[in-house]
Write a structure and sequence with these properties.
mainly alpha; 24 helices
Length: 365
């Protein structure tokens, strides 16, 4: 073969680099020929010879190899392009022009480049997310050390399968913006809730926004995570002191809430709760309507409502007496288990939820 003949001499790469560059330039001219068989043969030969010597090649040689293979790759059969993509993905500092070309190829070819990272710049990956298909996005979602801007681009597409793949990728960096979108999506999409809650990097403030829509086991998990993370994420003693002062101010208005709880209707109770805690009316209605009484337990504990008053709510929430004594005590358990500081933290996150703010704006408009 012409190529093998040119590479028979095996001297030190750096000393031979000018000659090698000249040889590569000749190959580049061959690669520009329109002959399909010639180009396909060159693709196989160059990949076999030069990629095996990649660590010994200098920058000029690597750049030319990348350009030659990028010109030849479209002429290769899919099976050869797939093999090339795997070899390129295994290189240290692969030629970006070639890697980008292969990453935009058929999904079975692009996968080798897209799953292994980081190879392409974030900008290129974001562009591929927007221009290629679902299979490309699934491969990107599996990429090790995936950066936050790319994760956000994937989340914004809203494809459940891709999002689940991303959430299962423990090494992906999912930033606050992407997590906020995921939490709002999970309020409607049950399939996202457990994978999202079990992410070690989900901020506890965003986790708390899911409390109202998940089951009992998940609520206990959220409370436990708050207890574990509170010292690290709450901002120290200043946050606790501020929360305690705010709770005292709320207690001054508790008497009105107790009166409505005993004599009023659920809509009246929700309006009073909204004013008492500074949460949206929609969020207050959601708390009152939950048959488990667990969101109300968080609200009551955060606002300093005592156990007797909360017990009254539990009893009155089932006016026909269909709840057994065991079930009644069961509903009091969360109130007793959660600390006031954690309850205040969760309530603060309900108050700050974008969904709650949007709903409150619509109602006041």
């Amino acid at each position: 073969m012409f190529i093998r003949h040119m590479l028979r001499q095996k001297s030190a790469p750096r000393a031979q680099e000018p000659d090698t560059v000249a040889h590569l330039t000749a190959l580049l001219n061959l690669a520009r020929q329109p002959s399909g068989p010639t180009r396909a043969r060159l693709l196989s030969d160059i990949a076999d010879i030069f990629l095996a010597r990649w660590p010994k090649l200098g920058p000029s040689e690597r750049a030319l190899i990348g350009e030659i293979l990028a010109r030849l790759a479209p002429s290769g059969e899919p099976i050869h392009r797939r093999a090339l993509a795997r070899r390129v993905a295994a290189l240290h500092e692969p030629p970006l022009v070639l890697a980008r070309l292969l990453a935009e190829d058929l999904p079975e070819i692009a996968e080798a480049i897209l799953r292994k990272g980081p190879i392409l710049p974030d900008k290129d990956l974001v562009d591929i997310v927007g221009t290629r298909g679902r299979d490309h996005r699934l491969a990107i979602a599996s990429q090790r050390f995936l950066a936050a801007p790319v994760a956000l681009a994937l989340v914004e597409r809203g494809e459940e399968e891709v999002i689940l793949r991303l959430l299962a990728n423990d090494q992906a960096h999912i930033g606050p913006a992407a997590f906020a979108l995921l939490v709002e999506s999970a309020r409607e999409n049950r399939a996202l809730r457990i994978p999202l809650l079990t992410r070690h990097d989900l901020p506890v403030g965003l986790m708390n926004r899911l409390f109202l829509v998940v089951g009992r086991a998940e609520r206990k998990f959220i409370v436990a995570e708050n207890a574990a993370r509170l010292p690290a994420e709450a901002g120290g003693e200043d946050w606790r002191r501020q929360g305690t002062l705010e709770a005292k101010r709320r207690r001054l208005r508790e008497a009105r809430l107790v009166e409505i709880l005993r004599l009023g209707t659920r809509p009246e109770l929700a309006r009073a709760m909204s004013g008492l805690a500074g949460i949206s009316l929609a969020r207050a209605e959601e708390i009152v309507a939950d048959p488990s009484c667990e969101p109300m337990a968080i609200f009551a504990k955060a606002c300093g409502i005592d156990r007797a008053t909360f017990s009254t709510f539990v009893l009155l929430s089932e006016p026909e007496g269909r709840r057994s004594l065991h079930e009644t005590y069961d509903r009091l358990s969360l109130y007793e288990e959660v600390s006031e500081a954690i309850a205040e933290r969760i309530l603060d996150d309900w108050r700050d939820s974008p969904a709650a703010q949007d709903e409150g704006a619509r109602r006041s408009a």
